[in-house]
Amino acid sequence: MAAPSRWAAPPRPAWEDEPSKAGLAGKGIVLVGACLGVLFPLWIVVVTSLSTKQTITEAGGLVMIPKGITFIAYQELLSGGQVTRASIVSLGVTLVGTLFSMTVSILAAYGLSRVGSVGHRWILMTFLATMFFGAGLIPTYLLVQSLGLTDTYLALILPSAISVFNILVLRGFFMGISPELIDSARIDGAGDWRILWTIVMPLSRAVIAVITLFYAVGYWSAWFNASIYLSDQDMMPLQNVMIQLVQKQEPPVGMGQAIKTGQLSALAVQMAVMTLALVPVAVLSPFVQRHFKKGMLTGAIKG
Amino acid sequence: MSHSTVPRGGSEAENQKKQRTARSAARTTAGKVIGIGKQAGTSETSGDASAGSGATGAPGPARPSGKLRLRLRLRRDRTLLLMTVPALALVLVFNYIPILGNVVAFQEYDPYVSDNGFVAIFHSPWVGLEQFQRIFEDSAFWDAVQNTLVLFSLQLLLFFPIPILLALLINSVIRPRIRAVSQAILYLPHFFSWVLVITVFQQIFGGAGIIAQTLRQHGYEGFDLMTDPGIFKFLVTAEGVWKDAGWGIIVFLAALASVSPDLYEAAAMDGAGRWRRMWHVTLPALRPVIALLLVLRVGDALTVGFEQILLQRDAVGPGAAEVLDTFVWWNGVRNQDFSYAAAAGLVKGVVSLGLVLAANKVAHLMGEQGVYKK
C-alpha cells in the first residue's frame, strides 16, 4: 500500500537542524488538541442521537461512550412531519439556488474575463463597489416585500443569489486559462458560448467545485431570510426548525406524545436534528477540499 | 511620450505630425541642444510608425471615427455583455435600488400608506434629520455602539492572532498526510451554519451541556454559560474562533508556501536559528497578508457577527447582546419603526465606509497595498 509512505516524513534539507523532542511533542499536543476541540463536540452530538433512551438516562444527558446503536430518532423524524418537510425544503432550496447562483456567476465571470471588452471596466466597478457598502437591512426588507417575494421561496434565493467575491474568484481562474487556446478555438469558428462550455468550464472544474460548495453551504446554512420573509411555519427550512427544536427546546410538532410515553428521548431527537443539518456539509466538504489550492482563493482578494 | 499622443483620427494625425515635424525642425535649426533635437526626431518617427499601423493595421480601417469603433466592439463583445446581464440585474435590484430606499431615514415612513412597501416611500412625509436626532438621544443606541466596539476589540485581540499561529504550526509540520488531515478537520466548522455552531456550544457549555452535566454528577454545581450576560462577549469570540480560526489559516498557508526555500537556506548558512529564521524570513513574508486582513477587519469593525448574535439575543438579553445590526433589526423588523431603524443603519453604513477608506489610507501610508491600489 502507498499509505505508509505518505505518512512518513520527507527528508529535511541538509541545512535544517533536527527539531528537539520537546518541540515536536509540544507541536503534536497543540495540533491534536485543536483537532479534538473540533471533533469532540460533534462526536457527542452524533453519539447521543444514536443512543437509546436508557443509555441517555444512565449518562444523565449527553452520551460520550456509545452503548448500542438505535436509529429510532431518525425513523421518527424522517417518517413525515415537521422535520421531514423542513429537510426537503432545505434540500430543494439548496439545489435550485446553487444551480441558479452558479449559472449566473459563471456567465458573469466569463463575460468579465476579457480585459478590454466593451464596458468591462464599468461593469466590474459596479460589482466591486458593492463590496464596500451595503444598502442596509431595512431598505432591502422593504424592497423584497414590495416585489411580492415574501412567503415565497424566491425570497430565500434571489436577494442573496450572487456573491461578488465568488464571481471574482471564478473570473480570476478563467483569466488564467491560456489565451492561445481560446484564440485557436475562435479561429476554428467557436463562439463565446461554445468556448465557455467546451473549453473554459472543463478546464475550471476545480474552482467550479469549490464555488459550488460555497454557494450550497450558504443556502443550506441560511435561516435569517426565512425568519423575516416567511410567515408560514410549514415552509420553514431545516435551520429555522433547528432553532425552535434545539435552541429553544420546543417539542417537535406531532412527536410530543411519542416522547412522553415511548422509548424516544427528547434529547436524542434534538441531536438527530443537529446531525441531519451537519452530515451533508461534513460529508461533502472534504471531497472539495482537495481543490482549495494555494492562491486560488487569495487571488480574488487583491483586485 | 509619443505613445500617449497616438492620434485618434487619421486627418488629425496628419496635422499633428506635420506640426511636430515643423517644430522639431525649427528647434534643430535654431541650434539648441542637439540631444533634444535628436530625441524629438526619434519620437517623431515612432509616432509616425504607430500612426501608420493605425491606418493600415490588422482590423482594417477600423478607426475612422470613435462611434463606428464602439459599434464594432459592441458587435464583437455582445455575447460577453449578454452574459453579465443576469448578474448585473441582480446586483442592481438587490444592491443598488435599496440604497435609494435609505431615504426613509429622512421620513416618517408609513407602511400602510400604500399596498406596496416601496411605493409607500413616495407618500410618506419628510421629517429631515429628526430620526437621527432621536437616535443620538437614545441610550439604547449608544449601548449598542458600546457593545459593538467591545466585541470588535475582543475579536481583534483574541481571534485575529490564532489563525496566524495555527498556520505557522501547520507549516512547520513536514509530513504531508498529517498536514492534510489536520487541515481538513480544522476547516470543517467553517462550513457549519451559525445555528449549528450555537447549538453545539449549547451542548458543551449550556445548562444541560456536557461540562455542567459532568460537574453535577460529581457533586459540584452546574452552570449555564449560554445565558450569562457577563461573559457573553467571550462566548461570542470563542464561537467565532471555533468556527473560523481553521479557515483563516488558508490565506496564511498560501503566503507561507510562496516563500522561497533559498531564503531559509541562506539564513541558516548565516547562522540564523529556528526562531531567527521565523522572525526575519517568515514574518516579513506574512506582513502584507496580515496588513491586508487587518485593513479588511478594521473596515468592517461595526459588523461583529449579526446572525450569530441575533440567535443568542433572546437567551442573553439585549443588555449584553444588542449590537448595531441587531438594533436595526429590532427597531425595524420587529417594532416596524422603519424610519428609525433605517436611520440607524445609515449611520452605521456611512461610518463603515469611512472606516474602510481610512484603513486603506493607513495601509498605503505604511507602504502596504491595502484592498485597492492607489
Annotate the secondary structure layout.
The complex is a heterodimer of chains A (303) and B (374).
Chain A: H1 3-7, H2 21-49, H3 53-59, H4 72-78, H5 82-111, H6 120-129, H7 137-146, H8 154-157, H9 164-175, H10 179-187, H11 192-203, H12 205-221, H13 224-229, H14 238-247, H15 256-261, H16 266-289, H17 298-301
Chain B: H1 10-29, H2 34-56, H3 66-101, H4 120-123, H5 130-136, H6 139-159, H7 161-172, H8 176-187, H9 194-205, H10 210-217, H11 232-257, H12 261-269, H13 274-299, H14 306-316, H15 318-321, H16 324-334, H17 338-365
What this model shows, in words?
The complex is a heterodimer of chains A (303) and B (374). Chain A contains 17 helices and no strands. Chain A is mostly helical and 303 residues long. Chain A has a domain at 82-234 and 292-301: MetI-like (MetI-like fold, Orthogonal Bundle). In chain A, helix 5 crosses helix 9 and helix 5 packs across helix 14 (238-247). The radius of gyration of chain A is 25 Å and the shape is globular. Chain B has 374 residues and is an all-alpha fold. Chain B has helices at 10-29, 34-56, 66-101, 120-123, 130-136, 139-159, 161-172, 176-187, 194-205, 210-217, 232-257, 261-269, 274-299, 306-316, 318-321, 324-334, 338-365. In chain B, helix 7 (161-172) crosses helix 11, helix 11 (232-257) crosses helix 13 (274-299) and helix 13 (274-299) packs antiparallel against helix 17. Chain B is globular and about 75 Å long. Classes of the chains: A mainly alpha (303), B mainly alpha (374).
